[in-house]
Amino acid sequence: MGVPLRPLAVTSRTRSSYREVAPPAALAGVLACGWHGHTGWARPLRVLPDGCADLVWDGASLAVVVTVGAPLRLWVPASASRVGVRLRCGAAAAVLGTAMPELAAVTRLSDLWGADARRAEEVLAATDDPDTQRGILETLVARRRATPDRRVLAAVQALGAATRTSDVAVGLSERALRRHLVHAVGAGPKQLHRIRRFQRFLRSLESLSAGRASLAGVAAGLGYADQSHLGRECRRLSGSSPAALVRVAEKFQTPARPARHDRPHVPSHHRGAR
What we know:
Number of strands: 9
Number of domains: 2
Largest sheet: 7 strands, antiparallel
Structural class: alpha+beta
Order of helices and strands: EEEEEEEEHEHHHHHHHHHH
Number of helices: 11
Strand content: 15-25%
Radius of gyration: 18 Å
Distance between the termini: 8 Å
Shape: globular
């Protein structure tokens, strides 16, 4: 299930694609998006951390994929098709019914939801239409009737825009905020701030690749101490330098959303290239 830096990539070998769609209005409080990806060719997919969790159907099983803190590398076979829904950062624990630190990077959903997940796998296997499969996943989430902690969602949003964790004020003490975020996301305020800021950097790749912005300017605008600080964070969270990520973006012309994955289909299950 990879999320490429660019939603469409074409090579001499075959075609790799990725498409996101907005969630139903009734689920906008817990879902960030739905998506469908087609691998195109076999490769290891690198999924970049974004603090979210995806429910992913790969044609054989339904799994939860989580990336927090470090890139995840997953092998995807040629011509694989994956469909998923992305749980909003901060909403996954409420939907899944478990604390996020208790989950591995990839967890079979039936290990959490038992018969409900196994029935969903049977229904998903009965159709090969991505839109229908996505609808099945959305219905599965809707039946959970989850209500995420609004303070956690507010903190996640604030950390995505703040230059410092001290700028976040959501009516919780520092200790309580950390406890709530670790439960809901799997990361404390400082780690989540690093991840969210890195995602903001990924959104700047198009401007950087087009020459409309500089790495030094982007680093300063995002609150990094300097360009070297940005470089260290990129290597820690993606395994690549900022310049390497910009070079990837330069290869593709289609406008992109921030990705969990750093290349058009070279990572996966969750975030194998979001």
